[in-house]
Amino acid sequence: MAVDLLLGLQWGDEGKGKIVDVLTSNYNIIARFQGGPNAGHTLVFNGKKHVLHTIPSGIFHDDATNLVGNGVVIDPVIFKGELDKLEVQDVDYRKSLMISRKAHIILPTHRLLDAASEASKGKSKIGSTLKGIGPTYMDKTGRNGIRVGDLELSDWKERYRNLADKHEKMIAFYGVDIEYNLKELEDEFFNAIETLKSLKFIDSEEYIYQAQKSGRTILAEGAQGSLLDIDFGTYPFVTSSNTTAAGACTGLGVAPNQIGEVFGIFKAYTTRVGSGPFPTELFDEDGATMAKVGHEFGATTGRPRRCGWLDLVALKYACQVNGVTQLMMMKADVLSGFKTLKVCTQYKYKGETISHLPYNIEEENVEPIYSNFSGWKEDLTSMSDASELPKALNDYIAFLEKELEIPITIVSVGPDRKQTIFKKQLV
């Protein structure tokens, strides 16, 4: 069986957690393939809101196996916090949750390094979530990292001590005032490690391979968004992993020819958290309305999200680099009440009109060119069938499908899993 893939097409926060939750009943295995606790996947059902950072979004389904893949970096303390919340909700995660031995571990000193590095940049900071993600991936590529499988070795604490000592020297090198009590941080860390060790560690690439051979269905769940990809995002204002479709291959050990459907998630407008270029960003009442109605605050950091019109140039780019086969549009309900909607269809780039994403989209180089569309007044949140959607929204969707040459199969009209309209049959 091919592995289907679900990922975000913008700067993250597209609503991936909700759609994974909605689709999980179609799959035996949900597998996270990259990122770490800088992700915030929000699920709403039965009147309750749930936020996951590292654990796959299929965890609330009894019949699904949830795998944290080798491409993920794990903070044991945050992970334990997620498990504690699941315990309160009577989720039997020990039965359904597994971790790749090749996944890397975030140490307390990784978080401190992250803070020191960001502080040293001053006004040039990139907007890190300060979760230690970047330093952990740096140790991974530098061949210094500690992996989950190392916890099964007799000398793993010695390995930890050597790496933590090295980190403290690096923190001092930055020359910034970072106050911390490593002893307290380590007590919490080692306590969380014991919880982590109570879970099932597996050789995940072999597990995935055997699952495919036996006909089990697999959905790979991405974190962040395509425009935050370390290679193809708006560098340097990006995350430290490959958030695009290729990341699923390296993050799970799946061969490229084994990828099936690629589900691309995008908002009906655009948001971004933290620093970095954002050509369609709004600073007016329309932007403020999007933020207020859409409750645009980061699920991980709580930081307000910057809001703007849909950027079709960037969206086309993301669809191309990911090979998207189906699109899923989120937060259509947030746009209800706007008299006129705008979509950026081209850029004026250094005096030239272009339709592709250029190397640099900083404000001084790029001016968005917009097309206008009629808005709709109807409240979408109680709608449950595609036949109920207003004509103006259907026209908006039809335009996007024509431009992107990809069907929009799901339209989300609210945060709850029930507020999901299947516009077309999923392949």
Shape: globular
Helix content: 25-40%
- Strand portion, in percent? 15-25%
Spans of 5+ residues with little confidence (pLDDT < 50)? Answer: none
Alpha-carbon distance between the two ends = 14 Å
Helix count equals 12
Query: How many beta-strand runs?
Result: 20
Structural class by helix and strand composition: alpha/beta
Average pLDDT, rounded to a whole number, is 93
Strand order of the largest sheet: 9-7-5-2-10-1-11-15-19-20
Rg, Cα atoms, Å: 21 Å
**Main sheet?**
10 strands, mixed
What does this structure look like?
31% of the residues lie in helices and 21% in strands. The relative contact order is 0.16. It has helices at residues 16-23, 76-88, 93-96, 108-121, 133-141, 156-174, 182-196, 204-213, 246-252, 285-293, 312-322, 391-404, and strands spanning 3-8, 29-32, 41-45, 48-52, 65-68, 73-74, 97-100, 104-105, 200-202, 218-221, 259-267, 270-272, 306-308, 310-311, 326-330, 340-349, 352-354, 366-374, 408-412, 420-422. The chain is built from twelve helices and 20 strands. The strands form five sheets. A ten-stranded mixed sheet has the order 9-7-5-2-10-1-11-15-19-20, with helices on both faces. Strands 14, 16, 17 and 18 form a four-stranded mixed sheet that branches. Strands 3-4 form a two-stranded antiparallel ribbon. The mean pLDDT is 93. With 427 residues, the protein is α/β, with parallel strands linked by helices.
